[in-house]
Specification:
The complex is a heterodimer of chains A (394) and B (552). Chain A has 15 helices and no strands. Chain A is mainly alpha-helical and 394 residues long. Chain A is extended. The two termini of chain A are 31 Å apart. Chain B has a two-stranded antiparallel ribbon. Chain B is elongated and about 115 Å long. The chains are: A mainly alpha (394), B mainly alpha (552). Chains A and B meet through helix 1, helix 4, helix 7, helix 8 and helix 9 of A and helix 1, helix 16, helix 17, helix 18 and helix 19 of B.
Chain lengths: 394, 552
């Protein structure tokens, strides 16, 4: 909908206190770092308010571009005096923010995308809510972002060294990646993971797809009960599955064998295959199979030539889910496997519990990129599936 | 359609009644569906449901006492523990022979460990006794050797015990079964020995002890019975038997030696079994030890479950454990409490995010969705290690706080290895499981409802609370149950960031499986946890429906 909120320059009596409050907030941190929080608040408020006055009143609206560059430059220089090279970066970011914020408030741009009848309180809440959501998103993504630069640490520390903060090339190195690719323990673990996950995936996809097709037939006796059993590996806590499998597999001699781990991982992946494939089959147009049969195709041909290509995206996403389940799984393999089946997550787990080595962070970074690749694939497949099903009538 | 006017049932094309034909088609369809499902169902039953059932079974199974000491348990059934006296000589006699075989098979330490869960000190009692059992028989053996050298030779014993006349296969079968019960070994193999019926009648205890020896030698050691010297316990049994046996009437091989032995019986240093065990360890006369053995002698027990809820059995019935041993209820409560806190913080953090995702334009929402899905797809260990990196005392958060001056360098916050660390890390890990169901519910709520409410004069808050929120409750329900189920069974994250105060019941289960080896207790704790989860699973199924679980 078109929004016809008029944008007008706000009076200085409104603008200056608002930007001063923002400056005071930033001043808390700078002040605390320098020793006096109160002084920081006062100076922060005064500086930002003064700059705001200069920018909006003295320079005027048509000088905006230049004024905002001036903000960045000023704060970067100030940052340099407080904290050296990292200070410049932080200062420049602050400068960019205050420049943008001053004009955003001062020229009333914050109203542009909102409906005209909102009260000031509602406008404040609207933006406060967005800031809260932004903070939650930051909470969600920060841990994953933080491990990446740390994995290039030249020291064996789990935190940023002063060299890293100065952007000194000395502070960075690929040694943890080198360790990962040359250390026998890690390579053995990687090899085990690569050997176990695909085998488990093939088992769960094979059985799972067949069963999902069976479950989506119109008349299935005990459908609910069967579904409950097939989904249960996802619901039962892993420690209980692990305990049960450990007891039972040691009875029948599967404990500590490759086969045992593959079977255990396959059964853990099954719910994901069932869920994704049945979801694809829900939108499947049955008249297509009838049409195929009508034209003389036998059930096997119908399955491979008509049904399979249409449900393929679901099958592949199910397979990816099953793969990642096995590839990331640690509790069950810890109990069902023996030292010969040590997988990558297991090695990470022992690494985290016993000898803390930043190689874990290098592995973590690699795994994050694998997840991004998988996530992208699943998303593309989902879109393709929707498009394919969109073609079929009904 | 010309048939329509005909009398009788409507017929299908092949002449069968239409009703039956349809029923057959339906049956075929059902069978085909089941045939497609059957392989997977079988697979899941074998590799998943059977292990769970095995665990449930283990939580009540208690064969070990009666399998390791069957005769002792039998004798003990007449003993009354409330008198405060130790059991009589018969019990100690049975104990000697039971324990001797168990010690040879190295099963007595397992039994000791098992009983030690119920009464501390029993493990060392069994262990030290197992080492000293030979001493009693050694004296007997020396004395018998003095009477006749042949009594020290394995081959002679074999001939004497094999005897002549019909063999007592029943005894061999019974002792094989008893050995198999104790060791779980296959006892199908032929042991190459069977005592004659005559000698079994004459020297019952000796025949029993020698058959035990023969079974063990042939099956466990894989040796030939005739070539091995009998155990010390056989001599003890012989002395016991000779005291009452009518040897004069016996004519089988070795009858003369037996007669000589009986004549020289007064040279044998007979000690009572009770005194012998008292000599090994005074604790054997402690009625409480025997009370424990008697209490845990049935094949099935509720002892593990009682233990799992901080109760114990006593002669006076079920009573609470001493204060300092009550840990499991505390752990269950802590697990519940922390799961609730985690679920609560997931709702608190997930609700605004789901709301904004559902109300932003599609393109922006899809972009922001990546920020939710990326953690969802990232390995659990990656996220846990990231939190370890962030939260530790020399970690990123503390460093930033110190740099900002909010925290002094020597007063860094302790955010890891406690409940706080577990809650933060697990909230982060489980948050996508809350956001995704919430988002899918909120997407279906038309935004016009809110506008309608406002145009009717509702304030922002009223419109949200009276119109929007009630419609989003199913999403909260689905997400909460999912997060709660997942969090009460969590193991990895509490193990790494939980320290001692932030651990869950699952960490205790893992500890009992891999460190303390108290599998029964682990199974009982697991069963209780499983019960809670299944209950929630059922509720989830009722509210959301298993079929409606969505991923990504």
């Amino acid at each position: 909908m078109a929004i016809l909120t008029p944008i007008q320059k706000q009076p200085l009596s409104f603008t200056l206190p608002v930007v001063a409050a923002a400056g005071a907030f930033a001043g808390i941190f700078v002040g605390a770092a320098q020793g006096s929080t109160l002084l920081g608040i006062l100076i922060g408020a005064a500086i930002v308010a003064a700059l705001g006055y200069v920018a909006l009143q003295v320079l005027g609206d048509d000088q905006e571009r230049m004024a905002r560059w001036a903000y960045v430059a000023l704060f970067a220089v100030a940052g340099f005096f407080f904290g050296g090279l990292p200070g410049v970066v932080v200062g420049a970011i602050f400068g960019w923010f205050f420049g943008w914020f001053t004009y955003w408030i001062g020229l009333g741009r914050y109203r542009a995308k909102l409906v005209p009848y909102l009260t000031p309180g509602q406008v404040l809440w609207h933006y406060a809510f967005r800031v809260i959501c932004g903070a939650i998103f930051v909470f969600l993504i920060t841990p994953i972002i933080v491990v990446m630069p740390l994995s290039f640490n030249a020291e064996d520390f789990f935190t940023f060294t002063p060299e890293m903060l100065r952007f000194d090339p000395e502070g960075y190195s690929l040694k943890h990646y080198r360790d990962f690719f040359t250390n026998d323990d890690w390579q053995q673990a990687l090899w085990n993971s690569v050997r176990i996950a695909p085998a488990a995936t093939i088992l769960s996809v094979g059985f799972g797809t067949l069963a999902a097709i069976g479950l989506s037939q119109p008349h299935v006796p005990f459908r609910r009960a069967i579904m409950a059993i097939l989904i249960s590996p996802m619901i039962v806590p892993l420690i209980i599955s692990a305990a049960g499998m450990y007891f039972f597999y040691s009875r029948i001699g599967l404990q500590g064998t490759y086969m045992g781990v593959v079977l255990a991982h396959a059964v853990l992946g099954i719910p994901f295959v069932i869920i994704t494939v049945t979801a694809t089959l829900v939108g499947f147009d049955r008249s297509l199979t009838r049409a195929a049969a009508n034209m003389g195709a036998d059930p096997v041909t119908t399955f491979f030539r008509v049904q399979m290509p249409l449900i393929m995206p679901g099958v592949i996403s199910g397979a990816l889910f099953a793969f990642i389940t096995s590839f990331d799984e640690v509790v069950v393999v810890l109990f069902v496997g023996s030292a010969g089946q040590k997988t990558l997550p297991w090695q990470m787990f022992t690494g985290l519990r016993e000898q803390i080595s930043p190689t874990i962070l290098a592995v973590a970074t690699i795994l994050v990129f694998i997840s991004i690749a998988l996530l992208t694939t699943v998303e593309l497949l989902r879109r393709r599936s929707e498009r394919l099903r969109g073609l079929s009538p009904g | 359609m010309s048939d329509a006017t005909q009398d009788g049932p409507v017929l299908a094309a092949d002449g069968t009644p239409l009703k039956r034909s349809l029923a057959r088609a339906l049956r075929m369809q059902k069978l085909r569906a089941l045939a497609l499902i059957a392989p997977l169902l079988l697979f899941v039953l074998l590799t998943f449901i059977a292990p769970i059932a095995d665990m449930l079974f283990r939580s009540v199974e208690n064969q070990i006492v009666s399998a390791t000491m069957p005769a002792t348990v039998r004798e003990l059934s007449d003993w009354d523990g409330t008198t405060g006296n130790p059991p009589g000589e018969e019990v100690f006699k049975a104990l000697y022979f039971d324990l001797f075989l168990a010690a040879e098979a190295k099963e007595h330490t397992k039994l000791g460990t098992r009983l030690n869960y119920e009464k501390t000190g029993v493990s060392s009692l069994f262990r030290s006794s197992g080492r000293k059992l030979d001493d009693l028989g050694k004296d007997y053996q020396k004395a018998f050797k003095k009477i006749d050298k042949q009594l020290d030779e394995g081959e002679f014993w074999y001939t004497m015990m094999t005897g002549s006349g019909p063999a007592s296969d029943a005894l061999v079968t019974a002792r094989k079964a008893r050995f198999g019960d104790m060791t779980d070994e296959s006892t199908k193999a032929d042991i190459g020995f069977a005592p004659s019926q005559a000698i079994t009648d004459l020297l019952p205890l000796t025949a029993l002890a020698y058959t035990d020896f023969a079974v063990f030698t042939a099956i466990a050691d894989g040796d030939t019975v005739a070539e091995e010297d009998p155990w010390e316990a056989v001599y003890v049994a012989l002395a016991e038997d000779l005291a009452t046996a009518d040897v004069a009437a016996y004519t089988g091989p070795g009858a003369d030696v037996l007669q000589a032995a009986q004549a020289g019986l007064d040279t044998i240093p007979v000690t009572s079994y009770t005194a012998f065990f008292e000599d090994i360890d005074k604790d054997w006369l402690d009625p409480e030890v025997w009370e424990t053995v008697k209490m845990y002698s049935p094949k099935y027990t509720n002892g593990y479950f009682l233990n799992a809820v901080d109760l114990q059995k006593s002669p006076d019935g079920i009573e609470p454990r001493p204060e300092n041993q009550q840990i499991y209820m505390k752990l269950f409560k802590r697990t519940m409490f922390m799961s609730l806190v985690i679920t609560g913080s997931c709702i608190l953090l997930g609700y605004p995010v789901a709301w904004i995702l559902a109300n932003l334009p599609m393109r922006t929402a899809n972009l922001l969705m990546i920020l939710v899905l990326l953690p969802f797809w990232t390995s659990l260990l990656v996220r846990t290690s990231a939190w370890k990196v962030m939260l530790q005392q020399q970690g990123v958060i503390n460093d930033v706080l110190v740099w900002l001056g909010l925290v002094a360098d020597d007063a860094r916050l302790v955010m890891i290895n406690n409940q706080f660390g577990t809650i933060v890390a697990m909230t982060h890990i489980l948050l996508p499981f809350m956001i995704l169901p919430l988002y899918s519910v909120m997407q279906t709520i038309p935004p016009t409802y809110l506008r309608a409410a406002k145009s009717l004069g509702a304030t922002n808050w009223t419109a949200f609370w009276r119109v929007y929120f009630p419609q989003s409750v199913p999403g909260i329900g689905a997400g909460s149950i999912l997060v709660f189920i997942l969090s009460i069974g969590y193991y990895i994250t509490p193990e790494i960031v939980g320290g001692t105060t932030g651990t869950f019941i699952s960490n205790r289960i893992a500890y009992h499986i891999s460190s303390s080896l108290n599998w029964g207790l682990a199974a009982a704790l697991g069963t209780i946890l499983l019960g809670v989860v299944l209950l929630l699973y059922y509720v989830y199924d009722k509210i959301v429906g298993i079929d409606n679980v969505k991923l990504g």
